[in-house]
């Protein structure tokens, strides 16, 4: 093993990058899914009964000031740690083990084919040799992990291995802010993987159990929208589009002469307190424009791959809860669209207000995927 390279895939792995949940080797212990985005922190805790039914125990959102987290980097460490402490208190959980995630842009993932007869130590050495060719910075600066996906479909006697690598400081930032908030970080995942894990339950409810369907998963954040096109749990395309819910906040601000903070509050309250013309004058034009942007993202997919359609569109992220969005996206793209509620089909703790959950549910996709790492390796 190269000196200085951080790589663990066992239960006693330490505190660095565990990208694919490979740490799970025993009965699952309570776990918090913590999603750190540019505008909010989100927390989800789940449990599963003996029948396999999932139950939402705790969830909460804590806003962040602009600039505290930028492009996935924690710029204001102390402020984010304090906000994370507030989030845990707000959620009312006593659990301290946490799963966090890095943005996809901070992690390099590659599938490689390696001989199936390699033992774990040999496999580790081979992975490091492959990583040295894939990673554009010195391995001494790398947190590295891998997991065996299965037999290679094209090379008999070989196995597919998924390799994940990130700079150590990216991992340490997530670890450090969790520890400063009194949590025990046990997983650092990758946001797109967590999103797909949470979306799997929704995809399985599509016709045919979702098998072989081409599904476009949009996560509409504050400043940007992430697209993943997936089929059978495999991502075949991804793209970020510079459009998000902040655009609606700005339109409300300009139209009604409000401060940014007041406009954001009114938006989150579904337009409560705004003039009666809000749905037609502001909201619908924004939905139409957003639908066009999502359609443009799909066009990039079509022009760069052999595909010319998707079977379904799933909408998630904070702005996915805007009334009328699914209809606007279907109208603008020509493809069936629906809003993804990651808690659909789960039992919900009576301590969580139904109205709050209905307004916030679409925001919890990544946090739910991270919480599911308690049960899904």
UniProtKB/TrEMBL annotation:
Keywords: Cell cycle, Cell division. CDD domains: ASKHA_NBD_PilM. Residues 31-199 form the SHS2 domain. GO terms for biological process: cell division. Pfam families: PilM_2. The keyword Iron-sulfur does not apply. PANTHER family: CELL DIVISION PROTEIN FTSA-RELATED, ETHANOLAMINE UTILIZATION PROTEIN EUTJ. This is Cell division protein FtsA.
């Amino acid at each position: 093993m190269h000196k200085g390279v951080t790589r663990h895939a066992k239960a006693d792995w330490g505190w660095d990058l565990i990208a694919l949940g490979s740490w799970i080797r025993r009965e699952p212990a309570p776990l918090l899914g913590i999603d750190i985005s540019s505008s909010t922190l989100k927390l989800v805790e789940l449990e599963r009964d003996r029948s396999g039914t999932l139950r939402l125990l705790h969830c909460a959102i804590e806003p962040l000031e602009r600039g505290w987290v930028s492009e996935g980097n924690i710029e204001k460490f102390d402020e984010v740690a304090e906000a994370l402490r507030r989030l845990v208190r707000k959620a009312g959980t006593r659990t301290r083990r946490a799963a966090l995630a890095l943005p996809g842009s901070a992690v390099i993932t590659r599938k490689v084919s390696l001989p199936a007869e390699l033992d774990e130590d040999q496999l580790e050495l081979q992975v490091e040799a492959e990583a040295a060719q894939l990673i554009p910075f010195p391995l001494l600066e790398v947190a590295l992990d891998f997991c065996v996906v299965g037999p290679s479909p094209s090379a008999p006697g070989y196995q597919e291995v998924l390799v994940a690598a990130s700079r150590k400081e990216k991992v340490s930032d997530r670890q450090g802010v969790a520890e400063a908030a009194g949590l025990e970080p046990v997983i650092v995942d990758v946001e797109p993987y967590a999103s797909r894990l949470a979306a799997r339950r929704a995809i399985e409810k599509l016709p045919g159990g979702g098998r072989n369907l081409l599904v476009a998963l949009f996560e509409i954040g504050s400043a940007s929208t992430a697209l993943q096109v997936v089929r059978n749990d495999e991502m075949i395309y991804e793209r970020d589009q510079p459009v998000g819910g902040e655009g609606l906040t700005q339109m409300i601000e300009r139209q009604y002469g409000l401060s940014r903070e007041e406009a954001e509050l009114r938006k989150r309250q579904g337009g409560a307190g705004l003039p009666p013309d809000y749905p037609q004058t502001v909201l619908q034009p924004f939905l139409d424009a957003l639908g066009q942007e999502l359609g443009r993202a799909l066009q990039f997919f079509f022009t760069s791959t052999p595909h010319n359609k998707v079977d379904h569109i799933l909408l998630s992220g904070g702005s996915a809860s805007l009334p009328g969005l699914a209809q606007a996206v279907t109208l603008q793209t020509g493809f069936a669209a629906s809003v993804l509620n990651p808690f659909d089909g789960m039992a919900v703790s009576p301590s969580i207000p139904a109205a709050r959950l209905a307004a916030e549910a679409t925001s919890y996709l990544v946090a739910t995927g991270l919480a599911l790492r308690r049960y899904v390796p």
